[in-house]
Amino acid sequence: MSEQIVEAVLWESAENNNVRCKLCNFRCEIKPGHRGICKVRQNLEGRLYSLNARAVCSAAVDPIEKKPLFHFLPGSHAFSIAAVGCNFQCDFCQNWQISQWPRMRQGVPGEMSQPQAIVDAARRSDCGSIAYTYTEPTIFMELAGACGEIARGEGIRNIFVSNGYLTAEALDYAKVWLDGINVDLKAFNDDFYRRHCKASLNPVLDTLGRIANETDIWLEVTTLIIPGENDSADELKQLARFIADELGVDIPWHISRFHPQYNLKEITATSQATLKAAYEIGKNAGLRHIYVGNLPGSGCESTYCHQCGNLLIERTGYQLGQVNLEDGKCPRCQMPLAGKF
After folding, report:
1. How far apart are alpha carbons 197 and 190 in whole angstroms?
2. Exposed, middle or buried by CB within 10 Å (0-12, 13-18, 19+), for 135?
3. Per-residue pLDDT averaged across 204-213, rounded?
4. Cβ atoms within 10 Å, residue 306
């Protein structure tokens, strides 16, 4: 057996030597020799194994703002890692070459990487956190968990950039060492999820609610606005209202501009007017922190005190300008800014 293959977490035996994976909300029942929907978890003789648990396909040092996380250690860097595979099949994925690799090619590529070595590399790079990102971190939970426990013990934070399809069991497993997460709320209609992602909306909403209300993991939400697909005023109002009512008005909402790519190239890029309209919808819903992404210079990237309007964190793209925070509070009116600083 390859050194990169380890026994999976969160599974149980089923009839006929099948196994049932409890990591994501597909809850695949997998026959011997077969793999789950993610294509990187396999039933080998009645036991479930992760095929990518030590295979890092991408590693880089990123600004934390790139995740995007705007209220989590602003101005710091994250040591970002990924393994191939995904439980979604988004036809607009910007990292499809690695997320969809196991569906298109043989093998599970990646550099053999031990968790302690990853944490050591993060420290050498002066990173305040390790980001499990680029593909869906849920499907390399074994690697994330092994790194996360070591990193937490050494004062390095852990963050996910996720599609939010974690089960309650997976969230319980991760919340011990996971400090922050950005979840893609890709739309607010189930038809979108089924057509574009081969998934469902409600499990994502359930996960978001658990994170916000049952853990101390810092949460931010991103929505990629795709013209004609998830940009109607009614849908955006429902989505913004969900964040405000169910997650909290202090949860940052990142509105991101769509660019044609992968299998969704026939749709044009999101207009600035559409992004501005979404921004206003979020404000009208009561959200205090709304940001426009993939459009540097939009004027909707900086953080302001929701009480007095004072500029707290100035941003252009991923670059920070002035930072006016005193112990996480506005220096003018002493209103705390929600986040982890």
Report:
1. 10
2. buried
3. 98
4. 17
pLDDT for residue 1: 46
Which two three-digit tokens encode residue 143?
């690697």
pTM value surpassing 0.70: yes
Asked, as a colleague might, if the bond just before 68 is cis with ω within 30 of 0, I would say yes
Two structure tokens written together for 94? 């910007």
Name the strand (E) or helix (H) holding 214. Answer: helix 202-214
Cα distances (Å, whole numbers) of residue 47 to 9, 17, 84, 140, 174:
11, 8, 21, 17, 22
**pLDDT at position 106, please?**
87
Which pLDDT score is estimated for 295? Answer: 79
Phi, psi (5° rounding) for residue 225?
A: -85, 115
Q: What is the mean pLDDT of the chain?
A: 96
How far is residue 25's CA from residue 329's CA, in Å, rounded to a whole number? Answer: 38
Rounded to an integer, what distance in angstroms lies between the CA atom of residue 203 and that of residue 24?
9
Q: Which two tokens stand for residue 139?
A: 């499907």
- Residue 3 pLDDT > 90: no
Q: 3-class SS at 254?
A: strand
Contact 341, 325 (CB under 8 A): yes
DSSP 139-201: GGHHHHHHHHHHHHHTT-EEEEEE-S-B-HHHHHHHTTT--EEEEE---SSHHHIIIIISS-S
